[in-house]
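Weekly sync notes, structure subgroup
Attendees: PM, AL, DS (notes)

Item 1: joint prediction request from the bench team. They want all two components modeled as one assembly rather than separately. Inputs as received:
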Amino acid sequence: MSSTNDVPVLEARDLVRTFHSKDREIRALDHVSVRLMPGKIMGVVGESGSGKSTLIRHIACLEKPDEGQLFCCGQEYTGRNAAFAGRHMQMIFQDAYGSFDPKMCFAKSIREGRNGRKGSDGKKAEDDPALLRNLLEKVHLDESFLKRYPGSLSGGQCQRMSIVRAVYSGARILLCDEATSALDVASQAQVIELLKELKEEYAISMIFVSHDLGVVSQLCDEVMVMKNGRVVEHGDCLEVISHPKEAYTRELLDAVMEVGDETGIHEHSHSDTPEWKETDLV
Amino acid sequence: MAENVLEIRDLSLSYGDDDIVRNVNLSVKAGEILCIAGESGCGKSTLLKAIHGMDAINVTAGDIVYEGKSILGMPASERRRMMGTGIGLIPQNPQGSFNPLRSFGKQMKETMESHGMKFDRTEMVRLMDSMGLPDGDKLISSRPFELSGGMNQRVAIVFSLLLQPKVLLCDEITSALDVTSGKMVIHEVESYAAHSNAAILMVTHHLGIADRIADTVAVMNHGEVVEYGPVSKVLYHPEDSYTRMLLEKIPKIRREAVS
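Output from the run, pasted for the record:
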């Protein structure tokens, strides 16, 4: 596979997927195209049911599209299985505990991610202790954590472990599905920093699905806004968030509740707040 | 000066041998919104459950006073009558509080009649509509398992509001909702407080919500209230280092500087 910088590491062309239920059809993906360039992070935002997760599940070959094509570094992989896609891309889920075998220590889970199956050359990848040490250092978990089990870690620690596993597997693309949404603000901030560092140091490219526009604006280079299975707006992250062209994007931005309003996006006053008195404390 | 509808005095709580909440003092007046913020495991949900009277939680010290009367010493029957119409709770996991196989309409009617109230279908449809659930007539006859988590969460909020509680306890009520429906729900709770002169205790880890609707904010960490006061003080001039950390770590929307 070529690795020149103008070939997208990942490309989806005109993906279409319709789900059929008893009395209606849902067009979950309606001609969706994505181009992810090497070392970039693409944010995907939109409300529940807009097709964000469906999109990355199709990219990871967990679902098959009705129409459309998928390319990894210029090579088509439409219709291949999830094991094939797994060599190049790994998913990071919202529920970190659920993505590990609870009865397997991290050392085993993480190694299995790397050499549990044969690579494209028909051989299993060798262990790389130096890389593993580096990654653990990066996520601020020392090697003693490898002996532990998922249940004994906090949600944030466990999510960091799942990122270690994904990168250690040799995949150079991460597909993150609400990867920070279940975390407390402090762990969320750690994971965001970690993803930024991985992008810089290991040239990892990512698709980052999130409903949190704050996180997306801190992390992503580009952003696409989805609604009802369609991409309604796409472009440079800072540009789209600062100057949204679509009414729907503006609506999403307006709905965000943030502390303080220096941006002037929503007006808010506390003039009706009753005056505070220490005696109110009982 | 209006009386406090609900007062929490020096309250300490435990689950079995584990102390979860220590020496908490909080109060709310009619029409006032108090937000309790903090990270997972800080004891904020336990506090709400104790006010609502969950059996598994032990009150090891302190008192909970509703309209001037301690609810801890109340006979069980009197306390049960008061729940829902006096003190209502919107739980974090609404699916767990519905019978999954009975229609919402039947469950609501039953609940209201057991409190001696009359079921008003039109009002229920109106409330559903205001929270982004159009087609309420059809939804009322549907059953909880047929709806998504976010839809169930909104119906649970409708249930609690229909009972017209004087104190409404909200436990992370936007956790299953995306930003647009989250905003509608928050707006509806805010207008309920204003129109019905009810006191709201809202537990949330989302400080943006606190900023939007709260009059007062209490920040909890490891079972203790570390900072408590009006929004303008706690969120804009925080004194406690933990409050400051929480505020700093929120990912803010990054925009180009306006020239």
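Discussion: Confidence is low (pLDDT under 50) at residues 262-282 of chain A.
Action: AL to compare against the crosslinking data before next sync.
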